[in-house]
Amino acid sequence: MTLLRLEQVTRTVLPPDQPALTILDGVDLAVEEGDRISIVGRSGSGKSTLLNILGLLDLPTSGVLEFQDRAVRSYSSGERDRIRGQHIGFVFQQFNLLQGRTALENVATPLLYATGRSFWRRRAIAAEMLEQVGLAHRLDSLPERLSGGEQQRVAIARALVRGPRLILADEPTGALDLDTGQSVMAVVEEVATRTGAALIVITHDPTIAATARTRYRLDRGVLSSAETGAEAA
Ligand SMILES: Nc1ncnc2c1ncn2[C@@H]1O[C@H](COP(=O)(O)OP(=O)(O)OP(=O)(O)O)[C@@H](O)[C@H]1O
Ligand SMILES: [Mg+2]
């Protein structure tokens, strides 16, 4: 099934006292179940703006955006929130963990909004997810006591704990050294493969971009294939 479809998507903003600024320009993209997509682009090319649209956080200014064959515009913002919570997991460069809460509590938090799960059930699901990212021995650690790589693993466990169909990662390894970044990406890919989720990674790291099956580049808001001429870039 096609998870997401974008056709001629633009995103324009109107800064005060300035001409309209086109951040995304005619973006076409289809995301199928289980896809592995990477998007590279310079700072300011529109990557995060695109990710916010893919994650149903923002709507296009014009063009078509469909989630599972239905126009996203036809959903209320409450419905969009529900779809996002249920089907989309986000991983960011800044891990955005709740300080003062253990790894287990951080991962269990998204389950609070899923209905019908008792306290102990939530803890069991969160513990299993942490085990899957290699942190079974860190359940009760506070984020401030964890290394960057471990914090990102907690953030990944939290993003994946509700079994999303789509994982959106914006510079997930940006705050990590090369080796740690690669092992963190391996964990994301492994979980995505096991659950059949699609994975879209925005990255500056050519090694990580190269591991995706489908590679795009974004240049001043224009999305194009990065399959050819990637070596020359
Ligand atoms: N609400 C807004 N109002 C005005 N300009 C904006 C707004 N949102 C984004 N921009 C501009 O649009 C461009 C694209 O922003 P975006 O955050 O998508 O870039 P990016 O590719 O993610 O960059 P980076 O790699 O630095 O994270 C930037 O020049 C940014 O300043
Ligand atoms: Mg960005």
TrEMBL record:
It comes from the Bacteria. This is ABC transporter ATP-binding protein. It comes from Cnuibacter physcomitrellae. CDD domains: ABC_MJ0796_LolCDE_FtsE. GO terms for molecular function: ATP binding; ATP hydrolysis activity; transmembrane transporter activity. GO terms for cellular component: plasma membrane. Keywords: ATP-binding, Nucleotide-binding, Transport. Residues 4-233 form the ABC transporter domain.
